[in-house]
Amino acid sequence: xxxxxxxxxxxxxxxxxxxxxxxxxxxxxxxxxxxxxxxxxxxxxxxxxxxxxxxxxxxxxxxxxxxxxxxxxxxxxxxxxxxxxxxxxxxxxxxxxxxxxxxxxxxxxxxxxxxxxxxxxxxxxxxxxxxxxxxxxxxxxxxxxxxxxxxxxxxxxxxxxxxxxxxxxxxxxxxxxxxxxxxxxxxxxxxxxxxxxxxxxxxxxxxxxxxxxxxxxxxxxxxxxxxxxxxxxxxxxxxxxxxxxxxxxxxxxxxxxxxxxxxxxxxxxxxxxxxxxxxxxxxxxxxxxxxxxxxxxxxxxxxxxxxxxxxxxxxxxxxxxxxxxxxxxxxxxxxxxxxxxxxxxxxxxxxxxxxxxxxxxxxxxxxxxxxxxxxxxxxxxxxxxxxxxxxxxxxxxx
Length: 398
Fold this sequence. Notes:
By secondary structure, this protein is of the alpha/beta class. It has 3 domains: 6-187, Ribonuclease H-like superfamily/Ribonuclease H (Nucleotidyltransferase, domain 5), CATH 3.30.420.10; 197-284, Orthogonal Bundle (DNA polymerase, domain 1), CATH 1.10.150.80; 301-389, HRDC domain (DNA polymerase, domain 1). It contains 20 helices and 6 strands. The longest helix is centred in the middle third of the chain and has 21 residues, at 210-230. The radius of gyration is 26 Å and the shape is flat.
């Protein structure tokens, strides 16, 4: 029976590292965060399983850095499910793989209709994997035994799942594709923080007027500062909808703000002085935000027919062509080519838009070699088709 004790001392951690080093084969790794509960995205539990070594549940806040474990596993393959979700918090504590096998991504490449870990395990291994604690608050201490059992199972089945999927990838001639995709996930750089993170406020597009937008900005910044101090998810202090309501109302006194029914949340009244200062700062600032910041964000494709009809025709033709290839290869279209890459290519195509130049543009955008090989010619042909259907300019009337 697996040991579900949490390792939270340095001596126990080093003993576990030695045991893992003595194991064989690739290593199953998972991390549990407290998304929606805490401000940080740190790992509150890290699970490791290796054959002939066993299962180990580590408490990152107690242990700190995992450099010794990383050194032991430096040359090994790490098995993760949806690696892009966990790599950042693993790297934060010094765990950085040189090779990965992503079982969620493998499921996509194999054309599986549902790619959640529980579904994939049940379909390929015939084992029902309950997922009732996936959205739990993993910063809770002590962690309940049922949560630890759940966490252990998340990694104990990964090596068997990996072996089954590797065989299926080989049989479907997708092993080389999978290696490229796994490496792309592992090597992907973290997106830089946007210049105005407060513009992530849900519903901000509905705000009219710079003054209300300034209030929304100050409220978001005040909430973010408090959430960071308390390590609490911002929305648990005051929901986005409440900040939005206050910004639109633009209350002229603290009393009006306090009486605003839509301004709710567990900290909406206990921190009313903080919120009123933010509103007042927004009402009086000379640093007015622009309504729509300049950037390289493309307009949504639904508006292209009016704004850039030629791009709209290219996009529709290319999407249809890619969908056909995706169906033939049993790979989701979004895994055949990242949608953002296609949109940018269609909006600003290379000249001439032949297969060679399309291939270069795709590579420069970040497409993998197998993707370029699969669709560069297909997209170039779609662009030709779109050009042929572009209506000619109307003849001027005499």
